[in-house]
Amino acid sequence: MLNHAIATLQAWFPAPAVEAHCDGPCGVYDPSSARIAAEAVLSMTKKIVDLDLPAAGDKGGQIAYHNTLSRYIAIKEEQAQIAKDEVLILWTDYFKPVHLEQFPDLHDTFWKAAKLCSACKVEVSLQHAQELMETVQKIHNMFWTSKSRDIPWYTAS
């Protein structure tokens, strides 16, 4: 009975068709979120590589080492996932087929960025962390070029 009443109301007062570019039509996109997360991945990777092992038998040092290492790894993986999410939002919500004419390697660039984010989560690789930064920089340039704006690339670190 309730379903019939709702169907009748929908027939009498149909909702107008709407379109949105994404789940929430805010129109606010910026690759800086991906850059910040990618920078954190690179920073944590460097800190992990530079972390000194404590002397054997130094129980306090071992505990501190493992605590610090665990925190660095957790942050690195969390930030790699954030970078991946931000990159995928730009790829799937902001960039449109018309951008492929302007950037023929658009799909390859975003696919590479997503794969690098995954690689940075599962391994400790300065090479992959640096490649992630370089790929995010390329995305930065594509994004701002698509908006006909000259926004220089910068890093916080």
Written overview of the protein:
It is a single chain. With 157 residues, this protein is mainly alpha-helical. The chain has a single domain, classed as Four Helix Bundle (Hemerythrin (Met), subunit A), CATH 1.20.120.400. The protein is 70% helix and 0% strand. It is flat and about 80 Å long. The relative contact order is 0.15. The model has no long low-confidence stretch (mean pLDDT 93). It comes from Halomicronema hongdechloris C2206. Its EC number is 1.15.1.1.
The CATH superfamily label reads: Nickel-containing superoxide dismutase
What would you call the structural class?
Answer: mainly alpha
The CATH architecture term is Up-down Bundle
- The termini sit apart by 63 Å
Instruction: Characterize the largest beta sheet: strand count, sense, and whether it forms a barrel.
Output: none
Total beta strand runs: 0
Helix content: over 70%
Please report the number of helical segments.
6
Write down the overall geometry.
flat
β-strand percent reads: under 5%
CATH class, please? Mainly Alpha
The overall average pLDDT, rounded, is 93
Tally of individual domains:
1
Radius of gyration: 22 Å
CATH fold category name:
Four Helix Bundle (Hemerythrin (Met), subunit A)
Organism: Halomicronema hongdechloris C2206
GO molecular function: nickel cation binding; superoxide dismutase activity
Protein name: Superoxide dismutase [Ni]
Enzyme class: oxidoreductase
